[in-house]
Amino acid sequence: METAVIDVFVSAVKLIGLPKSVGEIYGLLFSSPLPLTLDSLVRRLSISKGSASQGLKVLRSVGAVRPVYVAGDRRDHYAAETELKKLVAGFIREELQPRLDSGTERLSHLNSLLASSHPADSAFLSSRISKLAQWHARSKSVLPLLTGLLD
Fold it and tell me: Do both 54 and 99 map to the same domain?
């Protein structure tokens, strides 16, 4: 069962361009009834400590895992966040929003390059940049709606 759950999350992270280890870590934490340490993740997933550490860093930054206090143990323990709204909001905040923000700068750069394009290509390129700007604007307006739908 655990392997099948991990496979679900490995497929999901591949779809959004994150490393396989991120899906493995989240899948193992998701299917574990107890919080796990970094060393447990390394051992059970047969991944390097660096890969596990980096994966936890990514997952913590998007709010997909949280540290859990375990009495009598000084090591850090982690558990999966299972609230869909928190997961999606964290992913939007940490992954999608920065990319959309850089898209604004890129569109501006494309418009500045348009001035130096060949006059015969100018109308076509201008229409394509306008299309990209529309897509960008729609993407920015959809993110808050998506987050709101998860309430």
Answer: no
Q: What is the average pLDDT across 123-151?
A: 81
72-95 pLDDT, tens digit per residue, is 888 999 999 988 777 777 777 777
Same domain? 57 vs 114: no
pTM (whole model) above 0.90 = no
- Domain extent, residue 16, equals 2-80
Angstrom distance (rounded) from CA 27 to CA 33: 12
Query: Cα separation of 57 and 61, whole Å?
Result: 6
Strands (E), 70-135: 77-80
SS (H, E, C) 39-59: HHHHHHHCCCHHHHHHHHHHH
Same domain for 73 and 95, yes or no, is: no
**What are the backbone angles phi and psi of residue 37, rounded to the nearest 5°?**
-90, 165
92-103 pLDDT, tens digit each: 777 777 877 888
118 exposure class (CB count in 10 Å sphere: 0-12, 13-18, 19+):
exposed
Does the CA dihedral 44-47-48-51 come out positive or negative? negative
For 39, other C-beta atoms within 10 Å of its C-beta total 12
Query: Which of the pair, 111 or 144, is modelled with greater confidence?
Result: 111
